[in-house]
Description:
It contains 13 helices and 6 strands. It is α/β, with parallel strands linked by helices. The chain folds into 2 domains: 6-131; 141-295, Trna Endonuclease, Chain: A, domain 1, CATH 3.40.1350. A 6-stranded mixed β-sheet has the order 1-2-3-4-5-6, with helices on both faces. Helix 12 (243-254) links the parallel strand 4 (235-240) and strand 5 (260-265). It is elongated. The model is unreliable at 300-304 (pLDDT under 50).
Amino acid sequence: MKKLNSEEILRILRGARKQNRLWTEVAQALRELEGLSSADEGGRPWIQRAEAESGYSANQLRRMAKVAEFQSYLTQAEPELAKKILERPFSHVEMISKIWPLDEEQARDLITRSGHTFRDLLGIYGTLSESSGGTDPIAAGKKAAKQFREKALGLIKRDPRKLYGGESGLKFEILRPIVPFRYASPDYYVVGRDEGKVARIDAVDCYALYGGSQKDAAQRKIILVATECSFFTRFWIVVPEGESADTVLWECDHLKLGNVGVILVGVDERLHWPRLPLGPPTPDRRNLWTDYDKTRLRRDGEQN
Length: 304
């Protein structure tokens, strides 16, 4: 199949809401645009361009993209159900995609049997969510971030030599800070000492960003990294393999973040190192670490 260029894809999005274009086509068009690059020729993120062209809000577009991921999964796992669910309005498909992880059997039944209103589906989702503990989204996000952070650290500790950069003469340890540095708050410090004296401070920040629906979050993270990395010799980003990781890599290159490295956690539970730090931070703010700041690096938390 011929790959479309950005202008051809934008024609699909243009006036999509007014023309009542299928949500699956809109979601696919956004996915293809963001697969080309992170922004259009003028530097505007594709999600903003798609918002302007389609008539849908960025939030609506991201919801479509997220449901499209569920539809893609269903197409591979249950092709007949995937065809059947597309007979339903988007709001119904979105609600069923939320019911599926809570009660797959009931979700299957809702796909095959018609006659349910959106209010019915909303009520079923509410009941299931409450009976399963009704996990607060913020709490769930914090739990997922903690699990990913701990997994990343465990994988890194198996062989941390690439993280340290092969600088001879320094003794390194990985610390989980309790009191963060006032200008930056990464998940871990990587501290190199020469005869007990702090000689180098690196950072490791872990982002549990899965799937294309979190590309906006990935871009916001990099905006923070662009400032925080200037206080460290090396600043490592750890992120799961996938579309959000592609956004992280593109933005690091686009912003010329020379001291930022990217580590990918693969589905095979292996680390991949597609981007290594190549130079000092620009601007270089490492001199803003005071002796007092450095003393607090000693036993603030988990160490290697």
